[in-house]
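dumping this here so i dont lose it
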């Protein structure tokens, strides 16, 4: 039977503009997940959906029932719950192999690798209305930043730079993403950090000594 694919991360409104974080000073999202304020602002979209799932099931946060519910959510077919709830259920579930949060453990943990692999079935099988491209990017960015130590630094740096703009609904094209990663590899992180959007990051002026 087809699953309902309830959308995720749509219960709370998105900010209109990327603004500096009052705690870390970088644009909100770039401190994720180490800066508590950035983490709170980003995780709020996941928590809103998880909170709705909990109250729909009469389950309170922080209880053994919540952990049981997380196990049940992970056992369900992709598309049974919002993707945000699948992610949050993983966060509430310690990996049986490495004890890290499921899906973000060390590079050599096969259980984490397969749990992380499995979650993306949602994105690949969802009908277009259930997930916008910027929502898919937001999910990728957050999953990457939560397991930064087992990702390539260039990819981590790219999502860190992009996250504040994903939050306001921007989404890089493939060409923009490629250009931004090229600038990053060329050591132009400061200029990228100062740019005011995805398009600006993808079109830095040529370096003087190359013109
Ligand atoms: Zn911050
Ligand atoms: Zn693991």
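and the seq i came up w/
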């Amino acid at each position: 039977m087809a699953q309902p694919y309830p959308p995720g991360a749509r219960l709370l409104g998105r900010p209109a503009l990327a603004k500096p974080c009052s705690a870390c000073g970088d644009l909100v999202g770039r401190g994720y997940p180490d800066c508590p304020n950035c983490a709170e602002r980003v995780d709020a979209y996941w928590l809103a959906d998880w909170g709705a799932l909990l109250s729909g099931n009469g389950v309170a946060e922080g209880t053994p029932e919540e952990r049981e519910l997380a196990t049940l959510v992970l056992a369900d077919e992709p598309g049974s719950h919002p993707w945000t709830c699948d992610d949050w259920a993983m966060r509430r579930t310690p990996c049986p192999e490495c004890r890290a949060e499921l899906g973000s453990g060390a590079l050599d943990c096969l259980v984490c690798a397969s749990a992380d692999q499995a979650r993306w079935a949602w994105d690949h099988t969802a009908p277009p209305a259930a997930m916008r491209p910027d929502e898919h990017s937001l999910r990728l960015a957050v999953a990457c930043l939560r397991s930064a130590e087992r990702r390539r630094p260039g990819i981590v740096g790219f999502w860190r730079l992009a996250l504040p703009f994903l939050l306001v609904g921007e989404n890089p094209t493939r060409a923009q993403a490629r250009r931004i990663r090229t600038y990053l590899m060329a050591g132009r992180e400061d200029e990228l950090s100062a740019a005011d959007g995805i398009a600006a990051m993808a079109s830095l002026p040529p370096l003087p000594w190359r013109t």
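The first helix runs from residue 36 to 56.
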